[in-house]
Amino acid sequence: MTEATDKELIDWAIKNKRVDILVKHKWGYELSESQITLVRKIAFLEHKRISISAMTRWGKTQCVAFGIALLIDFNVAAKIAFLGPKQEQAAILREYMAELILGDKSLLGKAQIYASGEERIGKEASRKRMTFNTGAEYRVFSGEGDAGRLMGFGADILIRDEACLLNRDAFTKSSRMVGDNPEESVIIELYNPWDRDNQAFEHTMDPEWDVTRIGWEQAVVEGRTTQRFIDQQRRDLRPLEFTVLYESKFPSQGEDSLFNLEWIKNSEENHFKLQDQLDNTIKGFKHLNKLMTQMSSSEYEIKKKEITEELKKYTKIIACDPAEKGLDETVVIWGIEYENKFEVVSHWSEAISEPMKVVGKVVDIATSFIEPEVRGKINIDRIGIGSGPLSRLKEVIREKNIKNIKVLGCHYGEKAMKSDIFHNKKSENYFRLSDLMRDDLMDIPVHHKLRNQLVAEKWERSSSNKKIVKDPDKSPDWGDSLVYFIWKDKSGLSFGFA
Fold it and tell me: What is the pLDDT of residues 259-310, one digit of tens each?
């Protein structure tokens, strides 16, 4: 059998998606098994959303460059944006692309480089903008500052390098790059998983994203590193550094994180069934009244006392974080507290709310959710926009002569009950929520906004050595509402009846 020509070999490799053969033939590089998979996904556009974390020095950025270079050589007329947090990070992909262009005759022939001489051609290939006679083009951007430079360029493929380090401005504005054709556009994110307070982390939990994670175990199997080196790094590095750099995992809890991801997941998996317990207790109370004539007065009083004492252990809570019209979200959460266990039964949210309509919604929930036999409370933010709904809620509860429900205004800025430990009530109650989750006393719904906002919460020490929860860039409406749900009043006990 005669040996295949270059063209026949390349045509066969393209038809069969053999990127290992293409990369070896064009650039002399041997791809490992997992590198082959990643390069193929990009070169043949197998997914619209790709998330990639890999052990340091595994070669994730180089693999993305291989995939993009092949895609361009396949005559895909795509506009491609390379984005990094700073110029130096954005330049890494550019330098890889320059090497690949210069290293392959086919790709170099398509690049619109108007220069002669090896050195001048090399400089041309390293430009921040490169066009090709196939209609393809790539540009390099930095997400520094307010990321204003990202506006105005429409991209078919957006690549965010070191995505965990990009600020939210850069994420928002770079997303507009693919806004002309969002259903067909491709977004690729590469990162070391240092921090969970970013959209790159959020995308790892989104089923729309194809997530690749390469830890040291896979790298050892593929010969990208050795067990001896890994063992040495485990000894030399702090656990968090090893988790990020070699296990390629987001740490369950950062050094300044308030919530451990495992605590949150456990809270999502809990099913206390407090409503079922309460329903049975109320049925028992009603049934007892029917049996009153068949019992002696002493028997009746003893049984009544037992059931009444049990009912007092339950408190039904509605928590509300109202928002300005068009800003953030109004979030209402309601559920049950029983012996320091908290179960969220349901929730409601609205992007644009009228304060008095929110009051009506909360009252409707209260009257249908809180039975007359059970004490209830409504905890609502009383800062700014919340002051109006708070006053009106108190009026409505009073007008309706509802005796078993009390309304409490929650103020983050007030002095903490344990003021020697916490900076203010916000810090105190956020830490209380964290403790409840750690102790497995929370039952919460699986909700991506709630989870994302909790994992983003951070804390620090104030100048007076008190614990203080840092305010994030965007108001954590869902997190705040959950904090109001478990709020403590001045007595140090959950607010209820005396």
Answer: 988 899 999 999 999 999 999 998 988 888 777 767 778 887 888 888 889 9
The stretch 43-50 carries a mean pLDDT of 96
Dihedral over Cα of 380, 382, 384, 390: its sign = positive
pTM over 0.85: no
- Among 251, 276, 298, residue at a domain's last position: 251
C-alpha 362/C-alpha 350 separation (Å) is 13
pLDDT of residue 14: 95
- The residue out of 251, 272, 299 marking a domain boundary is 251
pLDDT tens figures, 209-252:
999 999 999 999 999 999 999 999 999 998 888 999 999 988 77
**CATH number, residue 441:** 3.30.420.240
Number of structural domains the chain divides into: 2
Same domain for 45 and 84?
Answer: yes
Q: Structural domain of residue 229, as residue ranges?
A: 6-251
Is 349 contained in some domain?
Answer: yes
